[in-house]
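In this notation, each integer encodes one residue's backbone shape. One such record reads:

___
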Amino acid sequence: MARRDVTVSRVLRADARLVWRALTERELLAEWLMPNDFVLEPGRPFTLRTDPAPGFDGVVRAEVLEVDPGRRMLWSWKGGPVDTVVEFRVEPLGDELTRVTVVQRGFRGLRAVVVSAVLQLGWWNLMRGPLPRCVARLAQAP
């Protein structure tokens, strides 16, 4: 059976606390990822919504699995042929630099592995455009 994991990492010129906020506050997640009903609470199910596509109704059904505040968060992620776990890691590097890493694990089966390539490109694009813009906006806020 085909299996694959996706890892995307980016260093942002920002304080780690701002990056963590962008990953964990509902309105900020909606700004750079997808509209959602997220609450940072282990065991709490939530949904993310986007445009439907063939074989996908546009709803990601997720749950907060683990939280290490300010450092790491783990979600289940189910939508279309995808049933995976997503890990977000925040690592302060000093001098207002922060590495953020997204790892999506557990793509199994040919269809899910094919979808993983699309999701990898999606994560890559999000972490090079919408997420840094969101964090930069937070840094400018009073």
In short: The mean pLDDT is 95.
